[in-house]
Amino acid sequence: MSTSQQIIALSAYTFRIRIAQIILAILIAILNIVSSAILGGYGVLGYGIFTPIATCIIVTYWYLANYTRRQSYNRWAILVLDCFGVVWWLSLWSALANLAVALGVIDSIDNEFGVSNNTLHVLHALTAVTAVLGAAEFILFVVSLVSFSILLHRARQSEHQMGQQGPFPNTYHQPTLNVDPNQQMNGQSATKLQGLHSDGGVEVAP
């Protein structure tokens, strides 16, 4: 198994964060659909429908890869998808906040001239709530991205240290000495002659 497919152990709170992400995404999608129906279609609200759907896909892949279909797990895919989630939600909640401010200004101008527009009130309230929920979703994605990045960095360090240590030898090889056979035989003969000479049984002529 390649390192990109080795599953990283998750923190205890990660599953709860993912559940909160998908719940907020569904709520934001519903609010944006209602706001889009009232306003008759708007670019920011359309983007506000796309981003929650993409979030549901990201969280679904994360769950399947970690729990049910682990053969599709890829740590780099999870990291990149979280990065996309952070960028998408940052741009979405800031755009929704700007839209809520613009609707609030229009609503206040109407109130100054004594014009009451209930539809504008509802749309302003929905957009403001959606912007707050989008900011919360952005924070959750930042937390999940930072926590997974830390776990990934630790896993990479551990794998690097294990790779530097390498396998330990299982057997010990005794070193051998290369001895010339002629020298070995001469040495054995000299030893035997010295032994006989010391016993007095044989005299060797010079």
Structural write-up:
By secondary structure, the chain is mainly alpha-helical. It has helices at residues 14-39, 43-68, 75-112, 118-165, 181-199. The longest helix is centred in the C-terminal third of the chain and has 48 residues, at 118-165. The N and C termini lie far apart (78 Å). 20% of the residues are buried. Mean pLDDT is 79; it is low at 167-177 and 201-206.
How would you name the oligomeric state of the polypeptide chains in this document? Answer: single chain
Distance between the termini: 78 Å
Task: Summarize the main sheet.
Answer: none
| Low-pLDDT residue intervals, each spanning 5 or more residues | 167-177, 201-206
CA-based shape: elongated
**Rg, alpha carbons:** 38 Å
Give the helix/strand class: mainly alpha
Strand portion: under 5%
DSSP strand count: 0
Percent helix, as a range, is over 70%
| Helix-strand sequence | HHHHH
Quote the average pLDDT.
Answer: 79
What is the helix tally? Answer: 5
Summarize the topology.
Layout: H1 14-39, H2 43-68, H3 75-112, H4 118-165, H5 181-199
Helix pairs in contact: 1-2, 1-4, 2-3, 3-4
Key structural traits:
single chain; 206 residues; 76% helix; mainly alpha
In brief:
This protein has 206 residues and is mostly helical.
